[in-house]
Amino acid sequence: MIMPAGRPLLLPANPKFIVLSFVLALLLHMLMGLLGWYWLPDVLAIVMVFWTVHQPRRVGLVLAFVLGLALDVHESALLGQNALSYVVLSGLATVAQRRMQWFPLREQTLQILPLFVVAAVVEWLTRLVAHDAWPAWSQLPGPLLQAALWPLVGALLLAPQRRAFERDDIRPL
To answer: What would the pLDDT profile of 81-134 be if each residue is shown by its tens digit?
Structure first.
């Protein structure tokens, strides 16, 4: 198999690892909500978009809808508010999936930023219409922080799939 120089061989992701990453991201999101740290980025959205781009057959719109409903119930928000935002985000990630895989993780940041901005605008508009409440200023840097965290989260989630090009007796991989 001929691979581009500098690009490691990626094996298919283990479904148990995907589920574990979603559970940890959901728990982290719920913890940040309980502590009132709304200015922090939505880690669950980053993980969802990452797996939608890298494993589109396993992660898609249905999982985005279910995760959004779980957040709606947890936050006591209008039922479907986060679900709509997550479905829009997952749909846009599905559309951009082939294009994004041509770029390394750092360069994908510019590709992913508009997706997070659109999802945040959808959430803010539904909150404005349903609750007649303008979003707080502390929520505005959220999409920028999500895009900034994209290379770090991507490197962490891709780490178990990386393998060496050639096996030898010295390295166990």
So the answer is: 889 999 999 999 999 988 888 888 889 999 999 999 999 999 888 888 887 677
Residues 42 and 83: beta-carbon distance below 8 Å = no
Which structure tokens are listed for 7? 């690009």
**Which of 16, 30, 25 minimizes the C-alpha distance to 153?**
25
Read off the pTM.
Answer: 0.84
- Number of residues written out for the chain: 173
CA distance 152 to 96: 20
9, containing H or E segment = strand 9-10
The answer to whether the beta carbons of residues 93 and 53 sit under 8 Å apart is yes
Distance in angstroms (rounded) separating the CA atoms of residues 130 and 140: 19
CB of 22 closer than 8 Å to CB of 40: no
Q: Are the beta carbons of 150 and 109 closer than 8 angstroms?
A: yes
Q: Say which amino acid occupies 169.
A: D
Token pair in block for residue 105: 């993780």
Q: Where are the alpha helices (DSSP H) in the chain?
A: 15-35, 43-54, 61-75, 81-95, 97-100, 105-131, 142-158
